[in-house]
Design brief:
Layout lengths: L7 H5 L7 H4 L9 H20 L12 H12 L21 H20 L10 E3 L3 E3 L1 H24 L1
């Protein structure tokens, strides 16, 4: 399985050495590459924080029908329907500076590198709630972030090509 930290080059590679203007370019109503990188950073940070906090005896909830369908789309088909909005709390600001987004993303990757390097220390019963997919364990979150980075890296490359 891929590791989350392996996706630094996938997300940031196309932006390396690019001027701020390229980080801020997007079609009307779409996120800029800087906003996409910031969105990924927020997602990485929030999920890592969940694994870093004590769980306090919570039980994993079974997924709802909608969560099962969403998991099948993401994990099975590696696809998300058009028009699906970012989960609340992961939407970037209207303007994000390139350096800030890059730094935040690298910080999120560092947190995940720490988690991935010591999976045995993360209690096997530990889970963190995903707003659309339900309760996910460490390996499921890794799969999600790998898919999520790939998904948004395509958008970044598209913005830069346009």
């Amino acid at each position: 399985m891929s590791r989350v930290v392996d996706f630094e080059h996938v997300v940031l590679g196309p932006l390396a050495g690019r001027p701020e203007g390229d980080w801020q370019r997007a079609p009307a109503g779409k996120w800029t590459p800087a906003q996409i990188v910031e969105h990924l950073a927020i997602s990485l940070e929030r999920s890592a924080r969940g694994f870093e906090a004590p769980q306090g005896g919570q039980r994993r909830r079974p997924p709802t029908l909608i969560e099962r369908v969403a998991r099948w789309l993401v994990f099975g088909l590696a696809w998300t329907p058009p028009g699906v909005r970012a989960a609340r709390g992961t939407t970037p600001a209207a303007r994000v500076e390139a350096g800030d987004a890059e730094r935040h993303f690298r910080d999120g990757l560092a947190r995940w590198a720490s988690l991935e390097s010591r999976p045995a220390e993360v209690n096997p019963g530990t889970f963190v709630r995903h707003p659309r997919l339900g309760d996910l364990d460490l390996e499921e979150w890794i799969r999600f972030h790998v898919w999520h980075c790939r998904h948004h890296a395509k958008q970044i490359r598209s913005r830069l090509a346009g």
